[in-house]
Amino acid sequence: MNKKKDCEPASFLxxxxxxxxxxxxxAKIIVALMKDQPLKRFALCKKACVxxxxxxxxxxxxxxxxxxxxTSKGYCLFNYVEKPNLWDIVQQKCLDAGAPLxxxxxxxxxxxxQDPITGWYKMLYHDDSIKGIFIHRGANELxxxxxxxxxxxxxxxxxxxxxLREGDRLSWKQRLFEVKALEEVxxxxxxxxxxxxxxxxx
Length: 202
Known about the structure:
Elements: H1 3-7, H2 10-19, H3 25-35, H4 41-48, H5 52-64, E1 68-71, E2 74-77, H6 86-96, E3 102-114, E4 121-136, H7 140-146, E5 156-160, E6 169-172, E7 175-187, E8 190-201
Antiparallel strand pairs: 1-2, 3-4, 3-6, 4-5, 5-8, 6-7, 7-8
Helix pairs in contact: 3-4
């Protein structure tokens, strides 16, 4: 008879059994986020070593119990404070300075048929719209809020997540403007928004 084995308390046997058990899927997800967050769905599944189907089954439970949450940058633990991105910061500063995000009518340039004599292409415009922040060169407080300086070559800038092309036109307060140049603005290494440089059309 093995007296040592027989004398082991039940709690000790349960403890030894727990050593052989693996973490549940929800625990794996939590541990992965403790090490790195926020994470997009695919990256989180890979780091947690769970399938996407398993993640889907556990995600709702974890969100409903306020263990994890979904943000614009991916999933994270519920106490994670998401740092606002540059676009959000600029939008808020411009809003405080009196320039909200607005919808502006746009005429997008499309080249039509080529003239057989002159070689010039017919210029056609398709109606569209763009959402952005319009900054006129004379709006000093707004330029300061957006941290931009508008050189004499341009009369206004448009800040937008959506790009236009050179030659496109847009209307603002019954005036017509044309896109002359574009510049990408980055938040660290991530794209933040377009700086669309405008001249006025008569």
